[in-house]
Amino acid sequence: MLEGEIMLKSIKNPRAIAVLAILLFAVVVAPSAQSRPVGMSGVQDAGCNCHGTAPDAGVVPVLEGLPDELEAGGTYTLNISFTGGPSGTGPGAFALGGFHLWASAGSIASVDNFTKINPDGSATHNGIDPYDSGTGNDQTQWQVEWTAPSEGGAKFTLHVNSVNGDAEASADDDWNRLNAEVGPQPVEQASGLVVLATSILLMFIITLGCILWVFYRQFPDAFSWDVFWPWVSDFITSTDHKKVGTLYMVNGLFFLGVGGLFALIFRLQLASPGNDFLTQDEYNQFFTMHGTTMIFLAAMPMIAGFANWIVPLQIGAPDLALPRLNALAFWLNPAAALLIFSGIFSGQGADTGWTGYAPYIVSNTAHSGATLWVAGQILAVASSTISGINFMTTFCTMRAPGMGWLQMPLFSWSMLIATLMLFISIPAFGIGLIQVLLDRTIGTVFYEVAAGGDPLLWSHLFWYFGHPEVYVVVLPAFGVISEVISTSARRTIFGYKSMVFAMAGIGIVGFIVYGHHMFTSGMSPVLRFVTMLTTMLVAVPTGIKIFNWLQTMHGGSLVYRTHTLWALGFLATFTLGGISGMYFPAVAMDLHLHETYFVVAHFHYVFVGGIVFGLYAGIYYWFPKATGRMMNEKVGIIHFLCGFISYNLVFWPMHRLGIQGMPRRQHTYFITTDEYFALPAEAADWNMMITVAAFLFFASNFILVYNMISSGLRGQKAPNDPWGGWSMEWMVASPAPTPSHDPSNLPVLQFAEEHEDTEPGLFGRLIQWMMISEDEDDGGEEE
Amino acid sequence: MEAGGEVFWGLFNEFNFWALIVLIIVVVWLMYNSLVFRSKDGSDNNIDNFTPGVWPAENDNLKMELTWTIVPFILIVYLTFIAWGPIDELWSADPDAHEIGVTASQWNWDFDCGDLDADICEVTSIDVEGQTKPLLRLKAGESYMFNMTSVDVTHAPFFLDWGLKEDTQPGMYTRLYHTPSVDEIGSSLLMCTEYCGMDHAYMTAVVEVHA
Question: Per the count of CB atoms within 10 A, which of A16, A326, A345, B105 is most buried?
Fold first, then answer.
């Protein structure tokens, strides 16, 4: 009844009715205006729509003369005819019928002047009475000759029209289609899009299955819709930071899998040179979606998931400052994902690369799905902005009593700096996206070079956001590693203040380095030179962090657990990724390495070896706090070994390929021939190895999923502080209660050493100045 | 032949040397600390006395922190210094260079030799895996300036053997200078290295340097 009342209410509002009517009208009219049977791939699929919209079974096409045993290169006379339909019944009946015959192989030749050959090799009747002299239209049967191909068989498509002779191509005529084949047919190759759609569906079903299984194991006696639905609806309507965090994590892990599927499919294409597993069109969409999915739909939500779960617990707050905004920020994500993906299943997904460079993205050659991609990205930008507001407010207002700015745990600090960076960078991206959306939909000319647009504008806007974005996703991973190494080594993190200042340093320098993505773009040499210097400089704070982590272990008592292994693995791979990054700011080297696999290797060492490994360490580290159960260490170690080894097998050879000059984003690659020099022959072997290892790496992640589910259900009960950490999330019970910390009895930060309460520093005073103090707030405007 | 030019390999080897040193320091340090300072019996020795909700004892050493701020900084300054020189070499404009026009379009390269001698610059065609592509013939020892633009979207010719690339942008001209040496005699594939749409991977040409 409730829904009925809501509907009635909205009907009473005339504006709502008008909007509904317009929407309904648009839904009804728009598709039918688009879906004339000419279709997307032309007359062969659509048929003779000028002779009626659909084939008519009353017309029977006949194709005679095809042999049972095909002789290679032989010539056959084909007889085409039809029966039925309105042929010749109209007044003055001078036209009787027509035909159109396509052969997928071999060649068709005309034997008399009743037929003719089209430029595409298909055959049709000659002449349309009464407009020209041809008499092929006055027949109901025709003859052509077909020469068989030298190997393999062929497929035929025949359309015939039975026309009523009124000399008009109209719906009063009837037509029909016949498909025939002769000789051996090639094995049907699966289309890349079909493989993708099937695998994503499979992923979705597996995810749903996992959720159902988790529910079933928790409530084995109450496995019914009446119990299941409240359980689910509690999750999807919750504003509790832990439940929203779980949603973020499930969302992020799901898209990590989907992004991986894209990679696997295009790695199949690249396994050998000259492969045709994917068409160029599909390949271009797949690498675009891989990058977009991994960064915006996997990495960002997973980081937001960690932040949601851990930040309030860690700084001693009952929840985030703005719980409803938090839920809104999450629910924008699936909507963004739907928009971004909706293009690809029409076969016209975005094919712009994750960087979406203009002017290509606004050109006619870019797929129509790029519009949806842009729209989805705008939602993702909105989501990040909203959750950023929330975290900043939480950090400013909800730290536990006694916790000054320089007593926040490092994971919280990393989130604070990441949020600040996101805030300063993402508007540029949002503006660029809105301009592109307007260019693509209502015909503005922001990026139209012919109308005076700057061909480099988008690159500047994008990389002004894009480079800090890399730090936005990597800093939280730094935070996780700081927590894990300190707790595992049983030592206070070495140089806490220098860690915070190093992150702040990265946060500042990170904004003035973006030009190193554009060394070859034709940008001003001065800007190239300046960003070369600043990019070199960013290695210093990053180096400080790595050396501090190493020194933290000194004099400690390192306890080896799965999260410790991932953290140590992170130190090795992230150092490699950092070092390979140092090759790019040297402009003279970048001119060779730009847009090659060396770049791909570098950023995968940072993104996977840095961010994903850091987040895996975080999953193993905080899992007991989230579920109240310990993860299985043996399975965890197997996961680490499989994942770490196969990961290096995937991405290490890419450095070599890059130096040899293999460009990224290319459908294929060329091996040196006698005629010209290109990639060495070994490049094919390396690519094959990368593809095989990629499958192993993908598979190894299911060990983690298995471990999370099985340990979550059957693992040992976890104590409050299983690893002996000091920060406030370990004060509360496992799993964490709601509210996370009792608001009437908030924890107060104690100090192991004598501690003087100092006056707030410049930063602290600035924040205080910006906030309305509680005494001044009369509270009158609150609900 | 080898991908990447002389300038690239000179810098690359130098950077590799320093990268290796940094890597060895980090890996040896990591190995040493994680093996020597491990909990021998796997039990939890709470060295810094962590207690939930209690800010732990300080652990820092200003001298050490300054050391690994200043030493890497000096290394960075040195690396910047050695990377500086070659830029001059790449960007110095030779006023006597032969100008070759390069016009990129989806998905073709169009080279224009102007009125240069056929010995110095000539455009013919060549078969690359079944497709006819332009072949640009240049002479070793001559100085060339590629004056490049695009008619539609961004492209970038990648001179594989020389280790050079530069985007071609619609509505503006970009330049690239190079004097092929005698070591660079031979033909190499030129690929597009800025994503430009459907046939991006097949937007190739061949550059031949003859004596």
Answer: A326
